[in-house]
Design goal:
Strand content: 15-25%
Largest sheet: 4 strands, parallel
Distance between the termini: 33 Å
Number of helices: 4
Order of helices and strands: EHEHEHEHEE
Protein backbone atom coordinates (compact mmCIF):
# COMPACT_ATOMS: atom_id res chain seq x y z
CA UNK A 1 0.00 0.00 0.00
CA UNK A 2 1.40 3.36 -1.05
CA UNK A 3 1.54 5.99 1.67
CA UNK A 4 1.01 9.61 0.65
CA UNK A 5 3.97 11.60 1.90
CA UNK A 6 3.35 14.32 4.46
CA UNK A 7 6.50 16.13 3.30
CA UNK A 8 7.87 16.67 -0.18
CA UNK A 9 11.56 17.52 -0.16
CA UNK A 10 12.58 19.33 -3.32
CA UNK A 11 16.23 18.74 -4.07
CA UNK A 12 17.63 20.59 -7.10
CA UNK A 13 20.90 19.22 -8.45
CA UNK A 14 23.60 20.34 -10.84
CA UNK A 15 26.90 18.48 -10.78
CA UNK A 16 26.10 16.85 -7.43
CA UNK A 17 27.22 13.30 -8.26
CA UNK A 18 29.27 13.03 -5.07
CA UNK A 19 26.96 14.94 -2.71
CA UNK A 20 23.63 13.42 -3.74
CA UNK A 21 24.10 9.97 -2.13
CA UNK A 22 25.31 11.58 1.10
CA UNK A 23 22.46 14.09 1.15
CA UNK A 24 19.80 11.43 0.59
CA UNK A 25 21.38 9.10 3.15
CA UNK A 26 21.30 11.92 5.73
CA UNK A 27 17.69 12.75 4.90
CA UNK A 28 16.75 9.10 5.43
CA UNK A 29 18.74 9.00 8.67
CA UNK A 30 16.85 11.94 10.16
CA UNK A 31 13.45 11.40 8.50
CA UNK A 32 12.90 7.63 8.64
CA UNK A 33 9.91 7.99 11.00
CA UNK A 34 8.19 10.60 8.82
CA UNK A 35 6.39 9.93 5.51
CA UNK A 36 8.26 11.89 2.86
CA UNK A 37 9.35 11.91 -0.74
CA UNK A 38 12.42 13.47 -2.31
CA UNK A 39 11.91 15.14 -5.66
CA UNK A 40 15.27 15.33 -7.44
CA UNK A 41 15.30 18.05 -10.09
CA UNK A 42 18.49 17.64 -12.11
CA UNK A 43 19.42 20.22 -14.73
CA UNK A 44 21.22 17.89 -17.16
CA UNK A 45 24.36 17.64 -15.02
CA UNK A 46 27.34 16.71 -17.20
CA UNK A 47 28.95 14.76 -14.31
CA UNK A 48 26.34 11.97 -14.31
CA UNK A 49 24.27 13.15 -11.33
CA UNK A 50 21.06 11.84 -12.92
CA UNK A 51 22.56 8.37 -13.35
CA UNK A 52 23.51 8.35 -9.66
CA UNK A 53 19.98 9.51 -8.80
CA UNK A 54 18.55 6.59 -10.80
CA UNK A 55 20.68 4.12 -8.80
CA UNK A 56 19.50 5.70 -5.55
CA UNK A 57 15.91 5.51 -6.76
CA UNK A 58 16.31 1.77 -7.35
CA UNK A 59 17.49 1.37 -3.76
CA UNK A 60 14.82 3.49 -2.06
CA UNK A 61 11.94 3.10 -4.53
CA UNK A 62 10.10 5.32 -6.99
CA UNK A 63 7.64 6.53 -4.37
CA UNK A 64 10.45 7.75 -2.09
CA UNK A 65 12.82 9.14 -4.74
CA UNK A 66 10.99 10.95 -7.55
CA UNK A 67 13.12 12.00 -10.52
CA UNK A 68 12.02 15.08 -12.44
CA UNK A 69 15.00 16.02 -14.64
CA UNK A 70 15.08 19.03 -16.93
CA UNK A 71 16.72 19.47 -20.34
CA UNK A 72 19.32 22.03 -19.31
CA UNK A 73 20.69 24.33 -16.67
CA UNK A 74 17.68 26.53 -15.96
CA UNK A 75 18.46 27.82 -12.45
CA UNK A 76 17.66 27.12 -8.82
CA UNK A 77 14.43 29.12 -8.54
CA UNK A 78 12.78 27.44 -11.50
CA UNK A 79 14.02 24.06 -10.23
CA UNK A 80 12.02 24.64 -7.04
CA UNK A 81 8.96 25.63 -9.09
CA UNK A 82 9.35 22.51 -11.23
CA UNK A 83 9.63 20.34 -8.11
CA UNK A 84 6.59 22.01 -6.54
CA UNK A 85 4.51 21.08 -9.59
CA UNK A 86 5.22 17.39 -8.84
CA UNK A 87 4.97 17.45 -5.04
CA UNK A 88 2.41 15.20 -3.35
CA UNK A 89 3.16 16.19 0.23
CA UNK A 90 1.05 18.38 2.46
CA UNK A 91 4.17 20.40 3.33
CA UNK A 92 7.22 21.35 1.27
CA UNK A 93 10.88 21.34 2.28
CA UNK A 94 13.28 23.23 0.03
CA UNK A 95 16.88 22.05 0.11
CA UNK A 96 19.99 22.02 -2.03
CA UNK A 97 22.04 18.91 -2.72
CA UNK A 98 25.28 20.80 -2.11
CA UNK A 99 24.68 20.21 1.64
CA UNK A 100 24.37 23.93 2.37
CA UNK A 101 21.10 22.91 4.05
CA UNK A 102 22.01 20.10 6.44
CA UNK A 103 19.28 17.45 6.76
CA UNK A 104 19.80 17.24 10.55
CA UNK A 105 17.79 20.47 10.91
CA UNK A 106 14.66 19.10 9.20
CA UNK A 107 13.29 17.32 12.27
CA UNK A 108 13.89 20.41 14.42
CA UNK A 109 11.94 22.49 11.93
CA UNK A 110 9.13 19.94 11.82
CA UNK A 111 9.00 20.02 15.64
CA UNK A 112 8.68 23.83 15.54
CA UNK A 113 6.01 23.57 12.88
CA UNK A 114 4.00 21.17 15.03
CA UNK A 115 4.58 23.03 18.30
CA UNK A 116 3.49 26.43 16.99
CA UNK A 117 1.03 25.16 14.34
CA UNK A 118 2.67 27.25 11.63
CA UNK A 119 2.74 26.84 7.89
CA UNK A 120 6.23 28.22 7.30
CA UNK A 121 9.42 27.56 9.24
CA UNK A 122 12.84 28.82 8.25
CA UNK A 123 16.18 28.14 9.82
CA UNK A 124 16.25 31.69 11.17
CA UNK A 125 12.64 32.52 12.05
CA UNK A 126 9.16 31.23 12.42
CA UNK A 127 6.44 32.99 10.45
CA UNK A 128 2.87 32.54 11.63
CA UNK A 129 0.35 32.24 8.83
Amino acid sequence: MEITPKYSIILPTYEERENLPICIWLIEKYMKEVPYEIIVVDDASPDGTLEVAKLIQKEYGENKIVLRPRAGRLGLGTAYVHGLSHARGEFIILMDADLSHHPKFITEMIALQNKYKVSVVTKEKQIRV
